[in-house]
Design a protein that fits this description.
This protein is mostly helical. It has one domain. The chain contains 19 helices and no strands. It is globular.
Length: 404
């Protein structure tokens, strides 16, 4: 308990500082409040040089990562995992400051908001029309992608309506409600993962769950940047949680599970790749299938959730995904607590660290637009450390074998 308490206090303070830092990248066209003390601070933050913003980000992110790994290795050494209720309390306390941050590293939430606005105010289909068609609207000033229709499907459009309605047409209130909405999606995802761990492993919690719910990338992308991937994966994970485990699966669970997975696909398409795994899980109790699959999976040192995590990288190979974005890792990381393959787990954790530094080249160059040089630097920051980390893990494993 002492270890978790220390971590929670430190992470709360670090996220509070990160939330304050996030307003250095507030869009110049965005007026959150006309309160004079706020404007004094906001203008001061805007005037900071790009190098200062970048170095500050690196320091804060590095400290968050160090604190994250300290918690994991300390609890592993103590061979102790707190109960789920305690972990959730630590999660709520440590992540709370991010609710009041600015979505400094992404403008996607502004697109979510305006797509809902198109439906409710203009009675327009955001999947057919583009935001630029409503150019007199002041809310377009904060958007970056105004030339293309909504890239998500109708499920997410429907999910984005409640926070917009509750916002009552007031931008700041609506923006804050979308942040809370994303936070709620993350909470539902964590609850789904906990149920999946419980049903598949017979445990209420494990260190893998801790690695997911306190992962800085997950928290920054889903709370600070307010991406919709938490909702998509919450629906998908709950779909699997309803059908895994011992014993016969009830018909109503199968139906609900299918509806949830279909709903997940309707938000962002990506989880359509999980349908083969979903079918496999249902057929898993077949003796012939089990013998064949067990042999293959044991040979590859994988389980169905490792396969799920790998499949969720497939959409990144398509032309629709123009380049890798850090929040895409939330898809595969959602299965981290129930994975078997050590290499895959370690690789995902390393990527979740390097991907947080992926923003650095863009930020150092003024945090405006991307160019080929910035994209190349981002690829190097993300993938080169992963290659060296996997090489280190391989040498470490080889050394252990030779010493036996």
């Amino acid at each position: 308990m002492k270890t978790l308490t220390v971590f929670t206090i430190l992470q709360f303070l670090l996220f509070a500082l990160l939330s304050f830092w996030s307003y250095t990248l507030t869009d110049p066209n965005l007026v959150l409040t006309s309160w004079q003390p706020y404007w004094n601070v906001q203008h001061m933050l805007w005037q900071l040089p790009a190098s200062t913003k970048s170095v500050t980000y690196v320091v804060l992110i590095s400290l968050c990562i160090v604190n994250y790994f300290w918690l994991y290795f300390r609890l592993m050494k103590e061979q102790f995992v707190p109960v789920f209720q305690t972990l959730m309390l630590a999660f709520f306390i440590s992540s709370a400051p991010l609710l009041f941050s600015y979505n400094a590293l992404s403008h996607d939430v502004f697109n979510y908001i305006f797509n809902a606005r198109m439906v409710l105010k203009y009675q327009a289909d955001p999947h057919v029309q583009v935001a630029l068609n409503f150019s007199p609207d002041d809310w377009l000033r904060f958007m970056h992608n105004v030339h293309t229709p909504a890239p998500y499907w109708y499920g997410w459009t429907a999910l984005s309506l409640p926070p917009y309605i509750l916002g009552g047409g007031k931008f700041v209130i609506t923006w804050l409600l979308f942040r809370v909405w994303s936070y709620l999606g993350l909470i539902l995802l964590i609850l789904g993962i906990q149920r999946l761990v419980q049903n598949s492993k017979g445990k209420s919690v494990n260190l893998g769950l801790l690695l997911f719910m306190f992962n800085p990338l997950v928290l920054i992308e889903l709370i600070m940047n307010s991406h919709n991937d938490g909702w998509m994966m919450a629906l998908a994970v709950w779909s699997f949680a309803l059908i895994v485990g011992k014993g016969k699966v009830k018909t109503q669970n199968i139906v609900l599970s299918f509806v949830l997975l279909l709903s997940s696909v309707s938000t962002k398409y990506i989880t359509a790749v999980l349908f083969p795994v979903w079918i496999y899980v249902l057929l898993e109790k077949s003796v012939s299938l089990t013998k064949l699959s067990d042999k293959l999976l044991k040979t590859l040192q994988l389980n169905v959730f490792d396969v799920s995590a790998l499949l969720l990288f497939v959409p990144l190979l398509t032309t629709r995904s123009q380049w890798f974005h850090p929040w895409y890792l939330v898809w595969s990381l959602s299965f981290l607590p129930v994975m078997k393959n050590t290499w895959l787990r370690k690789g995902l954790i390393v990527l979740s660290v390097t991907s947080l530094y992926r923003y650095l080249p863009w930020m150092w160059n003024g945090a405006f637009e991307f160019n080929e040089m910035i994209l190349m630097q981002q690829r190097m920051v993300t993938w080169v450390p992963l290659v060296f980390a996997l090489l280190y893990f391989f040498l470490q494993k080889t050394q252990k074998k030779s010493s036996i």
